[in-house]
Amino acid sequence: MGMRENIAGNLSRVRESIAAACGRARRNPRDVTMVAVTKTASVEAIRTLVDLGVDDLGESRVQSLQERASELAPTLAELAQAGRSVRWHMIGHVQRNKIKPLFDAGVEFVHSVDSLRLAEDLNERAEKIGRLVSVMIQVNCSREERKFGVAVGAATALAEMVASLRYVRLVGLMTMGPLSENPESTRPAFARLRELMDDMRRDRVGGPDLRHLSMGMSQDHLVAIEEGATIVRIGSALFA
Fold it and tell me: Domains of the chain, with CATH numbers?
């Protein structure tokens, strides 16, 4: 089997699994965005995935996003001329000294804001270049010490402060489930993030743009969708 056929088959299976999970949760599959995590893929494989209709690409390291964005720039520029927009998502931890290269690479979504200082630095850079950047607050719902993210109890206060920034658009919350071979073990963390979002929306925190739940990866995205994920981050299931 050639690379294109393999990736097309993987993509079809992922889309079918997303649709099935949405069916179980009585949700519309169109309400779930798949971000293809490209860190293990070749440039040719990523181009193939984009050619198959995937418009959202993600990286967990700033340097990797820079490299991928540069390698794919000609392809994405051609698509832009044809009226199609492919968006870059930063899904991993961001060091404050890496913000300029992140913007230089054309990032549109930052899923991993976990401090006011980071949000303020993103806002400052966005103001300098005259555009908005969409962000999500990363919440450590599993309470694991080695994970990044703000504590659940501090998330609402941070959201209120981030939402006040002029060039940062707060669009949602993100979490990572505990690493486990059993996807069901991630359900409590995902359910907690959904509950937190419900509380914020009820209290009108963050404004009307606060609607996304970024949670779930290749191994646990079905559970995440059942618990309300609007963005799932898929890597190995696409490129294996």
Answer: 3-239 (3.20.20.10)
